[in-house]
Fold this sequence. Notes:
Layout: E1 2-8, E2 12-17, E3 23-28, E4 33-37, E5 42-47, E6 54-59, E7 65-70, E8 75-79, E9 84-89, E10 96-101, E11 110-115, E12 120-124, E13 129-134, E14 141-146, E15 152-157, E16 161-166, H1 168-174, H2 203-216, E17 222-228, E18 234-239, E19 245-250, E20 254-260, E21 265-272, E22 278-283, E23 289-294, E24 298-303, E25 308-314, E26 320-325, E27 332-336, E28 339-344, E29 352-354, E30 359-364, E31 367-372, E32 383-389, E33 408-411, E34 419-425, E35 431-437, E36 446-453, E37 459-462, E38 465-469, E39 476-480, E40 485-489, E41 496-501, E42 507-512, E43 515-520, E44 525-531, E45 535-540, E46 546-551, E47 554-559, E48 564-569, E49 574-579, E50 592-596, E51 599-603, E52 609-614, E53 620-625, E54 628-632, E55 638-642, H3 646-655
Antiparallel strand pairs: 1-28, 2-3, 3-4, 4-5, 6-7, 7-8, 8-9, 10-11, 11-12, 12-13, 14-15, 15-16, 16-17, 18-19, 19-20, 20-21, 22-23, 23-24, 24-25, 26-27, 27-28, 29-30, 30-31, 31-32, 33-34, 34-35, 35-36, 37-38, 38-39, 39-40, 41-42, 42-43, 43-44, 45-46, 46-47, 47-48, 49-50, 50-51, 51-52, 53-54, ...
Amino acid sequence: MLTKFESKSARVKGLAFHPVRPWICASLHNGVIQLWDYRVGTVIDRFEEHDGPVRGVDFHLHEPLIVSGGDDYKIKVWDYKLRRCLFTLLGHLDYIRTVQFHPNATQFPWILSASDDQTLRLWDFQKRTCLSLLTGHNHYVMCAAFHPSEDLIVSASLDQTVRVWDTTGLRKKQMGGSTGLDSPGGMMDTNGMGRPGGNPGGVAGATALNVQAELFGTNDVVVKYVLEGHDRGVNWAAFHPTLPLLASAADDRQVKLWRMSETKAWEVDTLRGHVNNVSCCLFHPKHDLIVSNSEDRSIRVWDVSKRVGVQTFRREGDRFWIMAAHRTQNLLAAGHDSGMIVYKLERERPASTPGPANKLYYVRGRELFCHDYSRAQNGASGLDVPIATIRRVGQQAQTDGIGSAPRYISYNQHNPSEGNVLVCSEVDGGTYELITFSLTNASGSVTDGKRGSCLGPATFIGRNRFAVLDRHQRQIIVKNLNNETTKRVQPPVPNVDALLDGGASGRILLRADDRAILFEIQSRRVLGEISSPKIKSAVWSPDGSKVALLCKYGVVIADRQLEQLCSINDNVRIKSGAWDVSPTGGTASELFVYTTLHHVKYCLPSGDTGTIRTLDNPLYATRVVKDQLFCLDREARARVISIDATEARFKLALANKRVSAFACF
């Protein structure tokens, strides 16, 4: 688990991600609704009109609206731009457990609510009226949710059942069409004539209809399936975003998986492992996983296809109550007794490394690709050539989406006769695989299968040698291309936790605590040392004269002996960086471009920095040529974007006193 943000507050009972902005709304047991920016870690606003715990909250998909439901039997709709409650919907007779806007809220201005009064209600928030009352459960209704794309609703109740409701009738009625599923009583048909059985008494008929709806519910929404199988009350049920699947979580400590067809629904399997009431469950939006949390203080991840638990995260002292998933990003949130956490199940940075000349090697899924920049066509950044399929290793690696993907990749720049790539992952504590291939026929003759264990990335130190860090003894192990150990070297300092590229044959960078040490393996000499907190990677300039150490919140640029040239800090996490390789203009190996979550910025060895442009989504820089930034997105797709580095070039010309270059500006 990668925790991106953590808050401290009263017990969190409801959570909702904003569909676009980096916001999350948390409804608390003390009656407060908090609006957080999880990227910066600050509270944007608080809403405090509910009397008692607020158990449900949701964002509107397009408008600046929040809906909330609480123990005061009230549903409130808030405008977060105006920072106030717009109106309150009354009708429920007991605690309100969940509230949700319709996924297509522009066409259907509906709110769905579930309550301890054993009913669900559908509301029109534009007309501020109750559209439909859904009766059938005979205990508290703990949750209700719309299907993302179909006319379905799922509800879970302490009566030990999960119900699926069909809203086709209500949709047709709201769209103005005639249907046999309309509510009984004096409703008017499309031609203005009263239907059979209708009460032509106008107001009296409408009143009778309302009384009937309040007492017995309407049949605009009908029960499609009743799912029975849990031995105790069901706390949560959720639809799969695309497949006809359901997941439910209950007080019998089980998570059940159900499948639906047009005519029936049935239990597929039971996921056992929690040791207390299961509070919530959901399908991961991007992977074949179910995530559940429980009062046993754990979050568990289950493989849907294999139906087994694959990961467990525990939290001491705090029971979990609620979960939410972001609609488009790979983010999850969980609410517990003392706050909430926003987290990912795995890193989204694609593993990549520069190759010789105009090539980039990277991993997408289970495939190793060579991206050839020199063969760019039709506006693309280059041509992808598949090299090899990376085999799965270890037990954890059998499930995608939980950190089993390759994390680091290193290319052997010292070997001109053939291609050597080391692919490292964090499976089973750290593993590497050596892949060898022909440079002339990349996908033709591939040799793999040379594997071993390591800590962190492995790196090449010569034409036929590479170094890995031993997981247990923290020794530097030198191996040849047959994967045979040729030397063991004790690091000059303790607590070394990663090996990074040293920029030249026989040299490596050692990361230890908050410093980097340049170490020559043959002579066992320390060539240089530099302080730099939370180093993530080292990017060497094309001519090998400089190195940029990318840290969590900063960049340190040093020369080839690791003498510091400059250090810059940023408020947002650094994602990636690349040196300029332009053949003309004097910026090659002098201009360093790096990316954060939403910006492209530059840094010069003199210490000058600036912002080049904004980004809609995070990108990982791989190469800079003139006014083009080549990069990979989170799906490991090669992209090229235009940048304007005029300001950086001007500052560089100024620093180097190249007066002739001023004419260009």
